[in-house]
Amino acid sequence: MKKRILALALSAAMALSLAACSGGGDASGSGSGSGSGSNSGETKKVGLSMPTQSLERWNRDGSYLDEQFKSAGYETIITYSDNDTNRQVSDIQNMIAEGVDLLVVAAIDGEALNTVMNEAGEAGIPIIAYDRLIMNDNVSYYVSFDNYTVGTLQGQYIVDTLDLNNAEGPFNIELTAGDPADNNAGYFFQGAMDVLNPFIESGKLKVVSGQTDFDAVATDKWDTSTALDRAQTVLASYYADGTQVDAWLCSNDSTALGVAQAIESDYTGSNQPIITGQDGDEANLKNIVDGKQSMTVYKAVANEAVVTLDLGKAILNGETVDGSLIENAGWDFDCSYDTESYSTSEGHNCPSFLLVPDVVTKDNMVEKLVDTGYYTQDADGYLHPAA
Ligand code: GAL
């Protein structure tokens, strides 16, 4: 509970400090109303553009961001674009027309927002790329979790659980990656493969389908039924003769859900393969309790929203933003300032605030998720997002 309470206390404190420096933050400002955010008496407007409501985490991100910015005294416009890139473009165009002072964008497709990002840039609106990087130099900052580490945690979990450094093997594995349009998906996959590849090369791990290229194992829109279909095809083609699958790397929870379903319905072996995931979605936490999924990489998106708010506030106050934001904010979670890992174009690095992801399993989920106040546990042992 501690972290959540602290986050709320922080936002209350921030609301007060904003009120102090912006003359109360009410909407009655008598400025010119240009929407450029330079009138201190006027409530500033923040546009929050989320990709979709069909993946659980984005609902949580959207409501945390909306709550945090509102309770800090800002006006917000929030949209979810149904995983439709054209719709996200027009949602953001509407925000620009509404005169937002700051854009926070979680892109559906990191390459497809070029024109609208240029429009925002021309209008002088600062842009925070939220969670997923956008390939456009008008992006001012990037807030995310360390995406590469997400993948290494998944790969390492498989290495440790199969005890690959000691066991003789060989073990069989399959791979399911994320949406090629999502800039994060490649990092997740690369992180995992950097850990797994030495064992694949030595022959201790065998990808029976032979499908190891990102493009061959990617899942359009992170869609559960797409992941399910491919897993069924792989099982029918390579495992129908009783070959055992020991592990299935899945880059996130929505794809893990599809793979777990295929294992349940189409796998003839008697073992339960290791299945990885990411996000801590409710259905996946249930699968972890039931032994159908092994782990998920949890990202405390409430903290990602806290970082975004503090960063947004500093930008809107015209402060120079660098790593000192972290020391000044005094968050009770880890975050690093990284000016080298991400670039929006060749030679154009994007200053990034990166939070730290964490492994959640059946054994530690109460400690990591219930004791921290993010989820509650029911009498059957299942977890539900705290209201
Ligand atoms: C990624 C995000 C992950 C996961 C995935 C599917 O960009 O970082 O946490 O949610 O999208 O939505």
Tell me what you see in this structure.
Helices cover 42% and strands 18% of the residues. The chain is of the alpha/beta class and 387 residues long. It has two domains: 6-145 and 300-356, Response regulator (Rossmann fold), CATH 3.40.50; 147-278, 3-Layer(aba) Sandwich (Rossmann fold), CATH 3.40.50. Strands 2-1-3-4-5-14-11 form a seven-stranded mixed β-sheet, sandwiched between helices. It has a four-stranded parallel β-sheet with strand order 7-6-8-9, sandwiched between helices. Helix 5 (147-161) runs parallel beside helix 6. The model is unreliable at 1-39 (pLDDT under 50). Beta-D-galactopyranose (GAL) binds next to loops. Beta-D-galactopyranose is lined by residues 55, 57, 131-132, 178, 182, 184, 222, 252, 278-279, 299.
What does the overall shape look like?
globular
Give helix % range.
40-55%
Q: Largest sheet, described in full?
A: 7 strands, mixed
CATH H-level superfamily of the largest domain: Response regulator
Task: Report mean pLDDT, rounded to a whole number.
Answer: 91
Q: Tell me which oligomeric state these chains represent.
A: single chain
Order of helices and strands: HEHEHEHEEHEHEHHEHEHEHHEEEEEHEE
**Overall number of domains:** 2
Top-tier CATH class of the largest domain = Alpha Beta
Main β-sheet, spatial strand arrangement:
2-1-3-4-5-14-11
Structural class by sheet pairing and helices: alpha/beta
